[in-house]
Amino acid sequence: MALRSMVRPASRLLTTARLGASVRLASSSSQGEFNETALSNGFRVVSLKTHHQTASVAVHVDAGSRFETPEINGTAHFLEHMAFKGTANRSQQQLENEVEQKGIRLDAYTSRESTVFAGRCFAKDTGATVDILGDILTNPLLSEDAIEVERRVIQREYKEVNAIPYEVAMDYLHTAAYQNSPLGLTILGSPDNIQSITRNDLSNYINTFYTAPRMTLVATGGVDHEQLVAAAEKAFGGLSAEDKAPAVPACEFYGFQVTERDDFAPVATIAMAFEGAPLSSEDYYPLAVASAAVGSWQRGAGGAHTSASPLARAVADESLAQSYQSFVTPYSDTALWGVVFEAAYDQVDDASYAITNEWGRLALYSTDNEIQRAKAQLKAATLFALDSNFALNDHVGRQYAAFGRYVSPAEIVASIDAVSPSQVRKAMQEYIYDKDPAVAAVGPIEQLPDYARMRYDMSWVRS
Fold first, then answer.
1. Is residue 388 classed as helix, strand or coil in its secondary structure?
2. Is 294 exposed, middle or buried (0-12, 13-18, 19+ CB in 10 A)?
3. DSSP 48
4. Catalytic: 342?
5. Other Cβ atoms within 10 Å of 300 Cβ, number
6. 267: left (phi over 0), alpha (psi -120 to 50) or beta
7. How far apart, in whole angstroms, are the C-alpha atoms of residue 338 and residue 357?
8. Cα(90)–Cα(96) distance, rounded to whole angstroms?
9. In this structure, are strands 44-49 and 438-443 parallel, antiparallel, or unpaired?
10. Confidence (pTM)
């Protein structure tokens, strides 16, 4: 969790400074002053300075369920839960008191390709926040009592997540699409793994994945880069410079269907997706524009009958579903491009056909005007999602995971602007039209078309 620009990157002033054996890159743009420094052990320090009085500070780690095996699946997420339970230098109570006194808000989250430990603070407390995050990540206590407490928390979380049809369908979608790859594993892990993960498993995971080359400290807001580097050197300078993680096996996409029928559920939840282009591909933005053209809709939302999306109008006018959402889920070397929708049991067949028919129409008959509207919508959604220090921090971390560099919002907008309608149609024909979809469906799905019918619908379009 990455972008190749379709236009020339903005000019960047490069300077080199000696900080131990570190290298510094600096640039300035309308988004703020950007700086990057690599410590001698390979730990990266990145800052985007703005005129805020607050800051968002986060350590982005290349560690998630994709880097696990079935035997240890769930360890990255379990370790995230252990983050704020005390260190060798601070008890949990001391940690909580220090955070509360400074008004720092700590958070952590795990995805399939990364784990992030973050703190939001006043700009003047950036150094203290780095020190806390460094202590948490390099000196975790991992007490047996805390492990057992968090084990019960995660078990409850597992039950809660698996009671949400959308979450179940999306996990099943990954299982179907990437069935022979760790990318098909869930983030939480299986109930058996949650029950059996030990302190030794957590410690081994830290030693393997929490090394300098796999970690990036990102700070956005009212930050001073030189002070940030000094704090990072103190907190993370002692990390191993060796990347000990095993190579991630290449993933292969499968057209496959996973279903779980439950006729007592109020609605069916169905996710359908194809293998899209990763962020580093020149086809990513044409497909992202196509996804924006498919759009989204939910019952109760106003304006559906006059929506720019033909699919949204059809779903609203003909009552084909309760809601639908087009999505693009990119990874370092692949992506899922598709739609997830909710429908009553007697709407499933018609909704499925309407969606596949719309995909084919976009590939063959989409108009220049609708592509231009989709580009405007995608640009707006991109910029609206980056209107806080915390969101910017997550954005910068994702760009480094994908590209090894910062991709500014302006560069992304320029890449979207460069997409032509013919590129969108070409990408749809190459990745979507007449291709094998992955399908996951839960709930009252008696009327779900069989896979062969859905596959056929992807090669025949009623114009």
1. coil
2. buried
3. E
4. no
5. 7
6. beta
7. 13
8. 9
9. unpaired
10. 0.90
Q: Could you identify the residue written with the tokens 């379709």? A: 6
Closest CA to 34 of 54, 11, 18: 11
Tokens of 237: 């300078």
CA-nearest of 299, 296, 320, 300 to 309 is 296
DSSP labels for 168-207? Answer: HHHHHHHHHHTTTSGGGS-SS--HHHHHH--HHHHHHHHH
Q: In this structure, what token pair is assigned to residue 447?
A: 């009327």
Token pair of 239, please? 């990390």
Largest CA distance in the chain: 68
From residue 242, alpha-carbon distances to 41, 66, 216 in Å are 8, 20, 15
Q: How many residues does the chain have?
A: 463
Nearest Cα to Cα of residue 45 among 70, 20, 65, 68: 20
Helix (H) or strand (E) holding 94: helix 92-102
Helix ranges (DSSP H) in 332-443: 348-365, 368-384, 389-403, 409-417, 421-431
Which H helix or E strand runs over 136? helix 126-138
pLDDT (tens place) for every residue of the chain, 463 residues total: 232 222 222 222 222 232 333 444 555 555 679 999 999 999 999 999 998 999 999 999 999 999 999 999 999 999 999 999 999 999 999 999 999 999 999 999 999 999 999 999 999 999 999 999 999 999 999 999 999 999 999 999 999 999 999 999 999 999 999 998 999 999 999 999 999 999 999 999 999 999 999 999 999 999 999 999 999 999 999 999 999 999 888 899 999 999 999 999 999 999 999 999 999 999 999 999 999 999 999 987 766 666 778 999 999 989 999 999 999 999 999 999 999 999 999 999 999 999 999 999 999 999 999 999 999 999 999 999 998 899 999 999 999 888 888 999 999 999 999 999 999 999 999 999 999 999 999 999 999 999 999 999 888 765 5
Distances (CA, A) of 86 to 15, 95, 140: 39, 7, 6
DSSP state of 306: G
Closest CA to 171 of 293, 279, 74, 63: 74
Annotated catalytic residue, options 36, 68, 80, 358: 80
Amino acid identity for residue 219 in this structure: A
d(CA 160, CA 449) in angstroms, rounded, equals 29
